[in-house]
Each structure stands twice: as C-alpha cells, then as structure tokens.
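COMPLEX REQUEST
Ligand: zinc ion
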Amino acid sequence: MKKYIISILLLAISGLASGCIFEGKSKDIEVPEVIIEEPRDREEVVLIETDMTFSTISEEVGIGGTLMMNILAVSEEIYNLVKIRVGREIKFYFDKDTDEFIRLIYPIDTEEELFVEYNEEGELFAERREIEYQLKIKTAEGVIESSLYQSALDQNIDERAIIDLADVFAWTVDFGMGIRVGDTYKFIFEERYRNGEYQMPGEILAAKFVNDGKTIEGYYFSEGLDEDGDLLEGYYHPSGESVQKIFLKNPVSFKYISSGFTTGRRYVEAFNVSTGHRAIDYAAAAGTPIRSVGDGTVTFAGWNSQGYGYLTKIRHNSVFSTNYAHQSRMAVSYGQKVTQGQIIGYVGSTGFSTGPHLHFEMVKNGTKINPLTVDIPSDESIAEDKMEEFKAAITDWQKQLNN
Ligand SMILES: [Zn+2]
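STATUS: Structure written out below.
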C-alpha cells in the first residue's frame, strides 16, 4: 500500500513535466560501519496482508490464545496490535530449543518499534524503542531537462529522497509550472541502513536549487527544544531566514485548476444550484494523495451531507484553517495532529461533484479566503543568538554544494 501511494505521488510529480532528458551523477562520501546481528533465537517474520489480524497471525506462528491476549493487553497503551498495518513485517522470536515465545517486534513507524518480551521476573512487558539506523551521507546533483522525478530514476536516487527535496523547496519553487530546462540541483542527504541493508533516505541536510537562474539554498538546522518542548528545526537560507513557510503552495499534485475562487454567485448546472465558489478546485486523478498544507489538528473528518462528501477540516493556528472536500478516502481522523505535507486523504468525487477533484478551502479568522492570493507570512528565522552556531554548522555543506 505504501509503495502504491508513493508511486501515485511520483506519477503526479513526473506528470507535471514529462518527456524529459536528464543528466546527473551521484557519489558516496562516507561509508558506514555495518553491524550484522546474529540471530540467536528462531525468527518468524510475517508480512501482514489484507484480511490478516493479530489473532490469525498469532495462531499461525503457534502462539496460544491466552498468550495472544496477554500480548495485546500489555502492548495496548503503546500500540494497539488490533490495528496492525498491511505491508509491515511483524517478527516473532522463539527459543530454539523449547520453542517458547521470547519476543515480538512490530514497526510502529519509520522511527520506532514496539517490543513485547519478558522481563527478568518473567513478566510480559511492552516497550517502544527507537530504531537505530546506520547513516551514510550522499551527495546527488543534476541538470533538469523537465522533471525532478526523472532525474531520480536516471541516477538511482531513491524517489523518496527526491520527494523530500521537493518538500524542502515547496514554498520557493513551483515544481508544477516553475521548472525550467537547465535548472540544476545538488543536495546532501542521509541514507539509512539496518544490518547492512539499505532501508530509506533519512534527512536532507543541505540542498541547492538553481531555478530560472535564481539560486536557492536550504540548510537543515535545529535550534533545540522550544518552551513547549517541541523541537525547533527546519531549513534555512544562509541568511538564517526560513526556506519553508506556514503553508504548502498546493495541497495536491494537480492537472489543472478546474475552478477558481469567486465571491459572486455562479450556477452549477449538474446540481441545479447557484453559489459563489470560495475555494480552489484542483483537478487530479482519483486516488491522488492530498496533503495538509500545514501543521495542525483535524477538527472534522467524515461525511458531510451538504455536498462536500468526505471532508477533512484542519485547524493550523488561531488564524488559519483549511478544508479538503470530495475525497474518495480519508487517511486521518478527528483530533489527530498532522504535520505539513502529511497525506490526509485521497482525491475523489464524493458529494456534489462531477468528477475527481479536490475542493480546497482556506479559512482566515472565520472567513473563506483565496489561498492563491493570500499573503502568508514567512515562518520564523533563526534566532539571532543562534546565528553563529548556524553559520558554523553549514560551512562544510556550503563548500560542498558550491564547489
Ligand atoms: Zn469546488
């Protein structure tokens, strides 16, 4: 499923500028030390498929009903195993000699795993553990003849790293219409390995994009925790200004804007109603991922009988909220916290809709505004007392990107 989502997104990105030729190269800078763990116990790895439940999987690997219930009970507060996800691998370990259950490991997300095992007193307990990856630093660069995505294919860069790169510059480069032949990019990023096997790209550390003759550089920097204990991190220009702003330019990779923002009344023939259209309609294939344009909290996710179909509302701060209508499927639920760029649902045609599109509304202080013309403030720059630290941190990256 994950793969499916990624490929849709890539198709969408590549579709924005297709038929391209690309030249590029990538090179490794650092080779990590590889540690291969030796399995001491008998390992059973189950790839979770549709229709599998934790109960059926347990039965399959030989875990009895009582133990199964105990595992569910001890792990519930950390991760509810009733909700295991298709496509992930759940690992069971059994004593080689006695065949007794020793441990269960389930990936909660790309950063953490759930461990269920016995403590020294022989009691079953559950714990959340951070996944430790070995990191390899890579540099990739290229000239774009039309699309960034094609470049990833041509030089074997993980497409997910390219998506991340596009995200870094989502505010400053319009990857739909703004790409020019001859645009160049270079970026330094982490690759994550486990037991010597490549897993996924890690953080993008530094990136340079020359778009239509204009150079944009972004450097990753963390200022540490803020007063609320949240990590202050982001991408910054060498000047210390943020590369990112509060909202993404577009919530979806779209084919075209099928309906703009109007405050007057307009007649919609298909439904025999007339109304102003205080929204932007993005025509996109059904199933195209919809992304939250900013960090926020889901204040509504469900069916709307007034014509919006499957609708998600996200509150970003005290001023702004955004609404996403006519979805085929929703990926978040009420009360959930979402991050900028997170997939919150998929384009569809539910409710009063004549074809697959995203009806996107931006609400500022209770009034629907035109997201394409609103002046959205920059995200925060690096604090003055951190500038020296920032400049020192990016010196080597700057040299690498600009040599
Ligand atoms: Zn609309």
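REMARKS: The helical segments are 2-16, 54-61, 65-75, 148-154, 159-168, 387-402. Confidence is low (pLDDT under 50) at residues 1-31.
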